UniProtKB/TrEMBL annotation:
<feature type="domain" description="HTH dtxR-type">
    <location>
        <begin position="1"/>
        <end position="63"/>
    </location>
</feature>
<dbReference type="InterPro" id="IPR022687">
    <property type="entry name" value="HTH_DTXR"/>
</dbReference>
<protein>
    <submittedName>
        <fullName>Iron dependent repressor, N-terminal DNA binding domain</fullName>
    </submittedName>
</protein>
<dbReference type="GO" id="GO:0003700">
    <property type="term" value="F:DNA-binding transcription factor activity"/>
</dbReference>
<keyword id="KW-0464">Manganese</keyword>
<keyword id="KW-0479">Metal-binding</keyword>
<dbReference type="InterPro" id="IPR022689">
    <property type="entry name" value="Iron_dep_repressor"/>
</dbReference>
<dbReference type="InterPro" id="IPR050536">
    <property type="entry name" value="DtxR_MntR_Metal-Reg"/>
</dbReference>
<keyword id="KW-0804">Transcription</keyword>
<dbReference type="Pfam" id="PF01325">
    <property type="entry name" value="Fe_dep_repress"/>
</dbReference>
<comment type="similarity">
    <text>Belongs to the DtxR/MntR family.</text>
</comment>
<keyword id="KW-0238">DNA-binding</keyword>
<keyword id="KW-0010">Activator</keyword>
<dbReference type="InterPro" id="IPR036390">
    <property type="entry name" value="WH_DNA-bd_sf"/>
</dbReference>
<dbReference type="GO" id="GO:0005737">
    <property type="term" value="C:cytoplasm"/>
</dbReference>
<keyword id="KW-0805">Transcription regulation</keyword>
<keyword id="KW-0678">Repressor</keyword>
Length: 79
């Protein structure tokens, strides 16, 4: 079960990918007003929980699980 913080990150990543076609650590940090190192730590947690796939220096993509949760959060259906 994702934490509220994980949900915030997933939702913002989903929005960035929808708007730009990609989401970089720096974009996420700017959007959430946090340090890039905090984003990296959270992205690694989200990767470990199979919500996204993160490759250092290459970017990230949402998995089907992450995309579904982020889409639900973004649209307000939230389970």
């Amino acid at each position: 079960m994702p934490t509220p913080s994980m949900e915030d990150y997933l939702e913002r990543i989903y929005q960035l990918i929808d708007e730009k076609g990609y989401a970089r650590v720096s974009d996420i940090a700017d959007a959430l007003e946090v340090h890039p190192s905090s984003v990296t730590k959270m992205v690694q947690k989200l990767d470990a929980n199979e919500y996204l796939v993160y490759e250092k220096y290459r970017g990230l993509i949402l998995t089907a699980k992450g995309k579904k949760l982020a889409s639900d959060l973004f649209s307000g259906t939230n389970f």
